[in-house]
Amino acid sequence: MPVVSEAVLTQILSQLQSLQVAQQEMGAKLEALTNSNSPPSPEPRGLPISRTNGRQTKSPMNGSTITDSLQEREKSLYPGRVLLTTYPSQHGILPFNLTWGAEDPAVRGPVICSRLPSSIKVRNAIGAHSGSYSIYRALSIAMGSLDPMYKPSYEMTEPPVDLAVPCKSWYGTEGKNMKIVSLDPWGHLVPSVWQKAIQDKSVGGLGLDIRPSISVTKAHIKLKELDDSVNRGELFVDGKIVLNTAPFEGVLDPGVEVNVSKAAVDPIWYLPGVADRFGISESLLRRALFEDTGGMYPELITRPDIKVFLPPIGGLTVYIFGNPSFLRDPSKILTLRVHDECNGSDVFGSDICTCKPYLVYAIEECIRTAQGRHPDQIQAERERVKQSGGSEVDVNNVEKGAEGVGAVVYFRKEGRALGEVTKYLVYNLRKRGGDSADRYFKSTEMVAGVKDMRFQALMPDVLHWLGINKIDNMVSMSDMKYDAIVESGIPILKRYDIPPHLIPPDSQVEIDAKIASGYFSSGKQVTQEDLKKTVGRRWEEVEH
Ligand SMILES: Nc1nc2c(ncn2[C@@H]2O[C@H](COP(=O)(O)OP(=O)(O)OP(=O)(O)O)[C@@H](O)[C@H]2O)c(=O)[nH]1
Ligand SMILES: [Zn+2]
Question: Which residue's alpha carbon is nearest to atom 9 within ligand 1?
Fold first, then answer.
């Protein structure tokens, strides 16, 4: 865990103090808008509201009419006039200093996106926290279940495992040096690194509202497929990574569970870096984001001085098998899968694609790498080294390097980032048009105009955040994922495809189409002619 030096804290505090002076000088306009001197209210403001919306009925709370109380609520929640957007020249608005990619946290600065009174005037990010969930937060405030002044508390929420510590790949302020542009590498360390700024109540009465965009925790996972693999002898119980589940009432064989560490990551985009990654200008990126989100974020246009954007899109989760600190240790073997969400298969087991079997296979490969060799094998090798006259150090070294680490990165990019609604439309077209492999990618393109919107160029950021510097085993056939990772500077030593026995009955179409389009295969060749012959089942064929 990085410890921020006294000097850094003093620097942050002095920055805060000068900001406070700027705040005090602010005009009445912003003052009215933000109520900056009022202390946080202990209870949610406003009353719970009834669904009678506008009808003149009595409120069960205080006997007033519902329409009256709705208007009062609105006034009490939003007393100022609506401010549609801000401008850099606006009096009193001065974003908190932020130098993306700087090594020193005091220079880098925190990402501040909150609209709480203590923070609104120093916001240095456009958008809202928690991606698409920000809408639910708005709803909670409107419904009276969340106090709009509530400032989250982070006591005892710090990471329980040694995952993602500041390292070289976090730093770099331009071009190829900038390895991370779509998440905040300091996101999980916010409460510790900026603790003083968060707690210093002399700032706006509340302290700055700086929120973690990443959280790290530990868990046990339990999958039926892993029980089966243990029963078949393809995985072993080591008592450390794979554990026997304690028997519980009424269950004959409770199976196994697996120790994992995991991290949830919200997207944070540094716009100049994102534009650079895609080889477009920052102004084009901003304009496209503004126009094609229905003008949702005017500050993309009016605040060119604010470079960070919190997009309303899904984030990612990383599951780690074995010691998480091994991820950044080049002497340890790493097995990795980068997986894009497919709810139909991952959760509900749909047979039209290979997503779930590939995911489960990857989890097993990760576990096998984390466990290293079977204890019997290690013992046999220790014996062999001993017999051949090896020293005690040589014998003990046998065990070293036996354990590796595995990671599965799970991105919320459903339907190749086109969404599930589009995906089902594509499925209908495929099934009605004769589901042959030669039409596989074309079908998506016919519905959506493109076959894929995942933009894998941003995907390796999470690997750099974890400090990964090489991948021994990559469980993916995707050439797009491979190219993005290797181009970002992380070599991949071995790739492997999904074993044929794991391909569900209706998914050969997908696999053949992928191989023909450039996905990796260890052996199979597929020609354009072959593609016409690989067909999926029609709906009628499976409806008995
Ligand atoms: N739009 C669309 N999305 C699909 C279709 N079939 C699967 N998906 C989505 O594709 C994503 C998975 O990508 P795949 O193409 O199966 O595989 P990949 O991630 O490119 O490559 P691998 O790493 O080898 O699995 C998930 O988000 C699925 O929901 C389809 O026909 N149309
Ligand atoms: Zn799928």
Answer: 415
